[in-house]
Design a protein that fits this description.
Elements lengths: L21 H31 L8 H18 L5 H19 L11 H30 L5
Length: about 150
């Protein structure tokens, strides 16, 4: 602000929060890695299951949409758009449909194998918890000056 004229000095460059927190970078990378994992399942197992008739072809739609929402949410988070939290929320909700699609053998095991099943499910549970944490973090960023 120019003290003599009372107007804003527009010649000075205005930098608006140029740095991205390390957690944002981690969140974006994590979303992209999780997308690759789901896409790998789609290509390696999902398509074969649908082709053989074990699952309906329409059941591949939730994993494909989850992949798209994760990538979109990650890129919007990187681009400082507040809409990223909506994409991440959509990926979380669609991710719930992946449980019976991607892990059908878990629901058919005898009780004696439950400890092994818990060990098998632990990575997916941790991934879901991390995605929830990223979504909560994106909500916290909405209250800060990070987004445009």
């Amino acid at each position: 602000m120019d003290s003599r004229s009372g107007t804003m000095d527009t010649s000075a460059p205005q930098v608006r929060n140029p740095s991205r927190p390390a957690l944002v970078t981690f969140a974006v990378i994590y979303c992209l890695l999780l997308t690759l994992k789901i896409a790998y399942w789609l290509v390696s197992e999902g398509w074969a299951l649908a082709r053989m008739g074990d699952i309906a072809l329409i059941m591949l739609l939730p994993p494909a949409l989850t992949c798209m929402l994760l990538v979109t949410g990650g890129l919007l988070l990187w681009g400082r758009s507040a809409k990223s939290s909506w994409c991440l929320l959509g990926a979380l909700l669609l991710g719930l449909t992946l449980i019976p699609i991607m892990l059908p053998e878990i629901f058919r095991v005898p009780a004696s194998l439950y400890p092994q099943v818990a060990w098998y499910v632990l990575p997916a549970t941790l991934q879901a918890a991390l995605l929830v944490a990223i979504w909560v973090y994106s909500l916290r960023l909405r209250r800060s000056a990070y987004f445009k």
